[in-house]
């Protein structure tokens, strides 16, 4: 009599483990991104350019992953294929990162760290419905609306108090958030390996290093000092780069795009908290209000009903 329930419970256990792993990886990716945002803002303050930060983002991980990618096979790019690999590199690699770094030259940490991940969440929910035909509950749809309200509050600060350059910065982060949503959707749609995605993007990005070297980038890095370069190598080259990509790709595979897309919305609160503690940038009143709305939207978006 009790055999069927016991079997059903045992069968459900792997799903529970998969969900817990997906949640843990999603939150881990969010923490890595938050540290990357804070390190980016700090790096620009001490003299790095967006291109310098881009080099740190992909050079070290690319060198580490190169032997593994060569061993797995360059002909089909670790089973991903060159066409798919280039598409993923465009949406989730150096192009997106460079645009994002440039955004922090126009707006403070409280804008980019909220707008980009929130737009990644909104874009991920939209593409999950349109392209992947995943169902999105009424609660998640309501959460998306509340997130939009939070973004509008933050955007109003740029329009009313900071000027056209700040609006440009906000739009940059909207664009990069949507680019990352496209990246996340393609990872799920093509069912590619999480490790392969992280390693291939890093290795393909190595092709940009010779151009960086001949343009005087290494001299700029040397002038800033070893300590600051080591900090960016860890924050950009490990945490915000392959570690975050790998963890988020695993989260997508375990939870699906619609559920995994809500984790980028946890990045703002982590970033603002770390930015306040580590580099002394407290959020303004409007930024805090917008963040509160975004967090409320995240709560609604992650509910099961």
UniProtKB/TrEMBL annotation:
Native source species: Bradyrhizobium elkanii
The protein, known as: DMT family transporter
Transmembrane segments: 18-38, 58-74, 86-107, 113-132, 141-159, 171-190, 197-218, 230-249, 261-279, 285-301
Pfam families: EamA (PF00892)
Gene3D superfamilies in alphabetical order: 1.10.3730.20
Record keywords, A-Z: Membrane, Transmembrane, Transmembrane helix
GO cellular component, one term: membrane
EamA domain segment(s): 21-154, 168-300
């Amino acid at each position: 009599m009790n055999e069927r329930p016991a079997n059903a419970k045992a069968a459900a256990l792997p799903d529970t483990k998969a969900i817990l792993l997906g949640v843990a990886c999603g939150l881990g990716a969010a923490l890595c991104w938050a540290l990357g945002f804070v390190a980016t803002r700090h790096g620009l303050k001490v003299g790095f350019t967006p291109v310098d930060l881009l080099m740190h983002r992909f050079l070290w991980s690319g060198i580490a992953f190169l032997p593994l990618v060569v061993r797995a096979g360059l002909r089909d790019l670790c089973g991903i294929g060159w066409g798919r690999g280039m598409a993923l590199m465009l949406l989730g690699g150096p192009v997106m990162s460079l645009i994002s770094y440039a955004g922090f030259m126009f707006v403070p940490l409280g804008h980019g760290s909220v707008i980009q991940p929130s737009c990644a969440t909104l874009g991920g929910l939209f593409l999950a419905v349109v392209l992947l035909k995943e169902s999105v509950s009424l609660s998640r749809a309501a959460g998306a609306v509340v997130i939009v309200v939070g973004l509008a509050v933050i955007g109003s600060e740029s329009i009313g108090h900071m000027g056209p350059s700040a609006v440009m910065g906000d739009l940059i982060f909207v664009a990069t958030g949507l680019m990352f949503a496209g990246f996340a959707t393609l990872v799920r749609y093509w069912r590619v390996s999480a490790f392969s995605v992280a390693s291939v993007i890093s290795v393909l990005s190595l092709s940009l290093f010779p151009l960086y070297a001949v343009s005087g980038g290494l001299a700029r890095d040397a002038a800033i000092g070893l300590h600051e370069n080591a900090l960016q190598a860890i924050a950009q080259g490990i945490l915000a780069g392959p570690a975050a990509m790998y963890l988020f790709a695993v989260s997508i595979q375990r939870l699906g795009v619609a559920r995994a897309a809500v984790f980028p919305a946890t990045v703002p609160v982590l970033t603002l908290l770390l930015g306040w503690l580590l580099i002394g940038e407290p959020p303004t009143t409007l930024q805090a209000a917008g963040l509160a709305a975004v967090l409320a939207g995240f709560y609604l978006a992650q509910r099961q009903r």
